[in-house]
Design brief:
Helices cover about 30% and strands about 20% of the residues. With about 90 residues, the protein is α+β, with helices and mostly antiparallel strands. It has one domain (about 20-80). A 3-stranded antiparallel β-sheet has the order 1-2-3, with no helix packed on it. A hairpin with a 2-residue loop joins strand 2 (about 35-40) and strand 3. The two termini are about 30 Å apart.
């Protein structure tokens, strides 16, 4: 991950748990939406504009996917003691 250029003003901590889920929504007349639900709190991740996708949107989506995969691997490793990578699939 690259170094942040701005200082954080605030941090919002949303804990995973029984009610937490992530869902991807496709729409025919607008760009996709990623919904992160944490019980009574929802976070919607959308593109810059609802009618088009930019190169920056694609870059962010790929970065989000990489970091989410790394997060999932770390959580699984902590929970089950598995290594990340192909050997974890066995």
């Amino acid at each position: 991950m690259t170094r942040r250029r701005t200082h954080r003003i605030s941090i919002i901590n949303l804990n995973t748990g029984r009610g937490a889920r992530a869902t991807h929504h496709r729409y025919p007349a607008r760009t996709p939406v990623l919904a992160l639900d944490f019980g009574a709190v929802s976070v919607l991740v959308t593109t810059t504009a609802s009618d088009q996708v930019t190169a920056a949107d694609v870059d962010f989506a790929r970065q989000l996917a990489r970091e989410a995969d790394a997060f999932a691997c770390s959580v699984e490793r902590s929970f089950r003691g598995l290594a990340c990578g192909r050997e974890a699939a066995a």
